[in-house]
TrEMBL record:
PANTHER family tied to this protein: CHROMOSOME 1, WHOLE GENOME SHOTGUN SEQUENCE, DUF6534 DOMAIN-CONTAINING PROTEIN
Name by which UniProt lists this protein: DUF6534 domain-containing protein
Bilayer-spanning residue ranges: 20-38, 59-82, 102-118, 130-157, 169-193, 205-223
InterPro entries registered for this protein in UniProt: DUF6534
Keywords for this protein: Membrane, Transmembrane, Transmembrane helix
Domain DUF6534 as annotated: residue spans: 178-246
Organism name: Crepidotus variabilis
Domain of life: Eukaryota
Length: 260
């Protein structure tokens, strides 16, 4: 069976080795499992140590964990199919496992939740500014729309090499996520630093929010850039798939900040 009409197998497999294909994807899976363990521990500690937190934060933490678990289950299912079920069938391994096509949607939802949580903090410290709220809402909804569109479009492609056509969409989504992360972190830091806080408890809370905003924005931005760079620069390998596994888990290191 030919992998695709008019496309010779030698062309599809050009520049590919076991290491930069399934070796890279497998290492990404291992890293994703480690990050999933951290998320699970964070979730357990949060519910154990802060039982009186608002219900909306508890719901956010639970939704994040459920999405994280779902994402890992999809990734493990796909990798089992590639490395075990189709171990002796190389033609099947060059095809996209459809469980992975759902990943952009999950990433988009997680990014939206992250931006909603931090955007809510921005809205509060900015005296509930409607202009800032409108800008952040527009950017967040646009980012989510691009992620969902990416998931839908990815179902059109059967082979991994065909996904190169999604580069413009991937670049647009990444640029928007990086810009939104930077905007949220910058606004939070500027407004909080301008406030004259009194009392050790309040200063500690302000410092924690600033650190959380900067770290979250910086981490997701770096992971987003690395993920899209490997996708664009190395389309004939699975290195981008390994970084994508890490990105989907790294972006989920979000839990509500407990009271100081």
């Amino acid at each position: 069976m030919s992998p695709a009409p008019g496309i010779p197998l030698s062309q599809i497999l050009q520049g590919q080795t076991v290491d930069n294909l399934w070796g890279a994807a497998f290492l990404g899976l291992l890293a994703a499992c480690m990050l999933y363990g951290i998320t699970t521990l964070q979730t357990y500690n949060y519910f154990s140590n802060y039982p009186n937190d608002p219900k909306k934060f508890k719901l956010l933490a639970m939704v994040v964990w459920i999405l994280d678990t779902t994402s890992l289950a999809l990734v493990v299912t796909a990798m089992y199919g590639y490395l075990i079920t189709d171990m002796n069938n190389p033609l099947e391994r060059i095809k996209v496992n459809r469980t992975l096509d759902l990943d952009p949607a999950i990433m988009g939802i997680l990014a939206f939740l992250t931006h909603w949580y931090l955007g809510n903090r921005v809205w509060i410290v900015c005296n509930r500014s409607l202009i800032i709220a409108a800008i952040l809402t527009l950017l967040s909804v646009t980012s989510l729309s691009l992620a969902l569109t990416s998931a839908i479009v990815s179902f059109k492609f059967e082979l991994w090499t065909e996904k190169a056509d999604m580069r413009p969409l991937a670049l647009a989504g990444t640029a928007l996520v990086v810009a939104l992360d930077g905007l949220i972190a910058s606004i939070l830091c500027v407004y909080l630093l301008k406030q004259r806080t009194t009392g050790k408890r309040l200063r500690r809370l302000v410092r924690r929010i600033i650190i959380f905003a900067v770290n979250t924005g910086l981490a997701t931005s770096i992971l987003s850039i690395v993920n899209v760079v490997t996708f664009v620069a190395l389309p004939n390998t699975m290195i981008f798939l390994g970084t994508n596994f890490i990105f989907t888990k790294g972006s989920k290191q979000l839990l509500p900040l407990p009271p100081a």
